[in-house]
Amino acid sequence: MPNLPLFLAASVAITAAPGPDNLQVLARGISQGRAAGLVAAFGFAAGLIFHTTLAAFGIAALLRSSPLAFEIVKIAGGLYLIWVGVKALTSRGLASAHERAPVPLLTVFRQSIVGNMMNPKVTLFFVVFLPQFVNPGGTQRVAVQMIELGLVFMLQALAIFSAFGLFAGALGAWLKRRPRAGVWLDRLAGATFIALGLRVALRD
């Protein structure tokens, strides 16, 4: 795969651009702290294994060729994000976080994986993006090359998402010391999740 450096550069640019996954890592880190931001980063990165597998073995072609299947998965993913956002909006706010149990990190990890897996646009992106860097005449099979490219993408995404999570945790700690700002923190995170859910579900 002679284009691996170009693939890595393109992957970094795509991952760093504002999108549902990295914005959710920021929202999670701000609302619950650095550890939750990092766990969310690991969850979203782990979810890429699912999309890589689908792309490598051609299952994603079913989503692309079946508008009904695509719409069902797209709407399900959007509704899931909206549900997470509604739960955040109905919480008591960050200022009273010491009075309620935080979301367990295992739940954060699971929600992040599911949120990534339920976004069919990521699957379709992998179907279009990965084959551009595959060498059909190479010694490795195309599926193996695509899996390797998917792993490279996952590792760089993990690094970038983790940086976002660390930054969000620091920002969250700063806001927690300011009660008036902290009262609206969960509301902001909830609105972000709902907006992203609507964007995934309704955008053409």
Poorly predicted runs: 94-100
| Range of strand content | under 5%
Q: How many domains is the backbone divided into?
A: 1
Global Rg: 18 Å
Work out the helix count: 10
Shape: globular
Overall pLDDT confidence: 77
How would you portray this structure in words?
The protein is an all-alpha fold and 204 residues long. The protein has one domain. Helix content is 77%, strand content 0%. It is built from 10 helices and no strands. The protein has helices at 4-16, 20-32, 34-56, 60-65, 67-89, 105-117, 120-129, 142-176, 179-182, 185-202. Helix 1 runs parallel beside helix 8 (142-176), helix 2 (20-32) runs antiparallel to helix 10 and helix 3 (34-56) runs antiparallel to helix 8. It starts with a helix and ends with a helix. Residues 94-100 have low confidence and may be disordered.
Write the layout of secondary structure elements.
Layout: H1 4-16, H2 20-32, H3 34-56, H4 60-65, H5 67-89, H6 105-117, H7 120-129, H8 142-176, H9 179-182, H10 185-202
Helix pairs in contact: 1-8, 2-3, 2-8, 2-10, 3-6, 3-7, 3-8, 5-10
List keywords for this structure.
0% strand, mainly alpha
